[in-house]
Design a protein that fits this description.
The protein has 8 helices and 2 strands, in the order ααβααβαααα. The protein is mostly helical and 199 residues long. Helix 2 packs across helix 8.
């Protein structure tokens, strides 16, 4: 629907019978984590560094709330300094983000597109953005500089087909992890609700 690759997901995967956000903490990468920590999280899920970089390319669509990156764009010593620019970030981009997010503490819904140039299209622009300092999240920008991840950023920025192929394979691999079977899961009638949901 948004121009990305076709992903062959196997049928019949069951959904969890419960949902607890406390079980998720520590299993998802956060914007302010070190690259070592992020690589460790993906590694514990059986994913390689290359697969991690491909999956993070999903940030080519969607948005992030300002609170997720505010500490990056606002200097704690000079909260709204017009000339402050985080390391690796394009200075004009940083200034525009500060304008956009100036009231983020009063409006929790304030957000910015992860990919400022083609936010509604699944493409390799995300990686090109990183090469030019347009990484919204600190963790995104970090993959453009880390020696373990940069070669894949450069590859996917130069070759959209390579990105699409790697993304599809990594998604397929990830979708086959911790599959629920028999009574451990349920096939939901609506994917956003438990079958016994009463509203």
């Amino acid at each position: 629907m948004v121009g990305g690759p076709r992903i062959n997901v196997k049928y019949g995967r069951k959904d969890s019978l419960d949902s607890d956000m406390n079980r998720v903490e520590g299993k998802l990468a956060r914007p302010n984590m070190t690259m070592d920590h992020i690589i460790s999280i993906f590694g514990s899920a059986g994913l390689t560094v290359q697969e991690m970089v491909a999956l993070v390319g999903s940030h080519t669509i969607g948005f992030s709330h300002c609170k997720e990156f505010a500490s990056r764009i606002f200097n704690s010593n000079a909260e709204h300094s017009a000339d402050f620019c985080p390391e690796g970030m394009n200075s004009k981009y940083a200034a525009e983000l500060r304008k956009l997010c100036s009231n983020y503490t009063k409006d929790a819904e304030m957000s910015a597109f992860n990919d400022v140039f083609t936010p509604g299209k699944f493409d390799n622009m995300y990686y090109k953005n990183l090469q030019h300092g347009y990484g919204l999240l600190e963790s995104d920008q970090a993959i453009a500089f880390d020696n373990r991840t940069r070669p894949f950023v450069d590859l996917y920025a130069a070759n959209e087909t390579a990105f699409f192929d790697a993304f599809a394979k990594a998604m397929e691999k990830f979708s086959e992890q911790r599959v629920k079977t028999e009574l451990n899961g349920d096939v939901r009638r609506r994917c956003d609700q438990y079958n016994d949901y009463w509203g």
